[in-house]
Amino acid sequence: MADNSQRRIAFIGAGNMARSIISGLVSNGYPADRIIAANPSQPKLDALAADFAIQSTNDNLLACQQADVIVLGVKPQLMAQVCEPLSALDLSGKLVLSIAAGVTCDSLQRYLKQAISLVRTMPNTPSLLGLGMTGLYAEASVAEADRAFAGQLMAAVGEIIWLAQESDIDQVIACAGSSPAYFFLFMEAMQQAAVKMGVTTEDARAMIQQAAIGAAAMAKQNPQWSLAELRTQVTSKGGTTAKAIETFEQQDLRASVDDAMNAAVKRAQEMAKQF
Ligand SMILES: NC(=O)C1=CN([C@@H]2O[C@H](COP(=O)(O)OP(=O)(O)OC[C@H]3O[C@@H](n4cnc5c(N)ncnc54)[C@H](OP(=O)(O)O)[C@@H]3O)[C@@H](O)[C@H]2O)C=CC1
Ligand SMILES: O=C(O)[C@@H]1CCC=N1
After folding, report:
1. 3-state secondary structure 28-74
2. Cα(99) to centroid of ligand 1, in Å?
3. Keywords on this record (predicted)?
4. Global pTM?
5. Which CATH class is domain 177-272?
6. Listed residue (166, 147, 57, 68) closest to 109, CA to CA
7. In CATH, which superfamily holds the domain spanning 9-166?
8. Which of 9, 50, 195, 209 is 20 to 30 Å apart from 215, CA to CA?
9. Does ligand 2 come within 6 angstroms of the Cβ of 74?
10. pLDDT of 196-215, one tens digit each?
11. Strand pairing partners for 70?
């Protein structure tokens, strides 16, 4: 087994999430010539090779043969089909990381037809900027060196959290894997409202995204304050923010968020039964 900085990593499936992780890794100094991406469509591979100087191939088997670490980055519904040919390989000595939602460790071991050193992860797309959040779950049989590598790999693209049980992955999906999309939806709705008021699309976006960055940074840099306290600091009694917050509360934004996050968990659980 190569030492950690030299481990060869094969990404099987080079879509949005794989690209985010590859970008974060290369920006963080992981040697590009130790990374290979396998994907059916050539334009994605060409773009990855051009942007990050990594290796690429259309041949999943070839990529896995050469790798110490295999990152399974295809859609959940394709996972069985993609793993089938890989099951012909002897995967002992290799670490397999899955980033797929709703595909359990049991299913992956079954698809690959052998006991593997397997870590399930749930990253998110801000990994692209080194601002990712990843939950990781390793079965008890995974060696300490493999756990450490999986942790280092995902820590290179953001923060990580180790999970005690596999089902916790579904909560990470609701809180972090899917949640960038909730924030985009909220920002999108704010932008639409601003444009209706007569603000240009560009100005609205500039103001909203900067406020979002500022709010997230304030939350992160002030753990001594609860999120409710941070909100209260913006909210003058009888003022403008109070009126806006009152409107959200009257329309039960909290219930919508609760329903949405539980729907994400429920869908992950359904997928785990399906795949
Ligand atoms: N997007 C996100 O925010 C997150 C996604 N995930 C997980 O990441 C995984 C990928 O999602 P995402 O990146 O969004 O999806 P994408 O569709 O962007 O990426 C999937 C990639 O797999 C490729 N692919 C299809 N068939 C094969 C095959 N036979 N062999 C190799 N590659 C293949 C696709 O290629 P082509 O397009 O050329 O067909 C595509 O590039 C999913 O399992 C998802 O649950 C996890 C956390 C967050
Ligand atoms: O939507 C999905 O299923 C994936 C998992 C988390 C984010 N995207």
Report:
1. CCCCHHHEEEECCCHHHHHHHHHHHCCEEECCHHHHHHHCCEEEECC
2. 9
3. Amino-acid biosynthesis, Cytoplasm, NADP, Oxidoreductase, Proline biosynthesis
4. 0.96
5. mainly alpha
6. 166
7. NAD(P)-binding Rossmann-like Domain (3.40.50.720)
8. 195
9. no
10. 999 999 999 999 999 999 99
11. 10, 96
